[in-house]
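Need tokens for this chain, all 152 residues.
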Amino acid sequence: METRASGAAPTPEEARQSLHLAEQEESATVNRPVPGWYFPTLAALLLVMFLLNALGRPDQPVRGIVGGLVIACALLVAVLVGRVSFGPSPYRGVRVRWTRALPGIIIAAILALLPVLLANTVGSWIWAVCGIVLAGLLATAGTRYWQQTRRA
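Here are the structure tokens for all 152 residues:
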């Protein structure tokens, strides 16, 4: 908002416009920006974990190798999230809009629990299906988040 030479207060319309611009700027910069590779990498690691579980119950020693790879992927996800979320940044907090985040959280939880509950009944292929869907949703939502926050 510009200052006026006369020192007069802004009109109500000018004040509304200024508040609207400030709200837009805040919503564009309130959340921590992340590197462009972050969400696709998370999606790929989750997909690998789900696909490894889709192998079912292989014989030894393959079972130990698959289990080790799943654990390694889970650790990589934890390290990656920790480094990006809690690394050095001027952003001290993230404001979560729960009305927007909650549906995604519920869908992700369902996609993670569904194969655990149904794999013995319908087959281990459900791990692959749920993994592909979850990875696709994460990559899509993450790309949208990255596009909104990259200029911050």
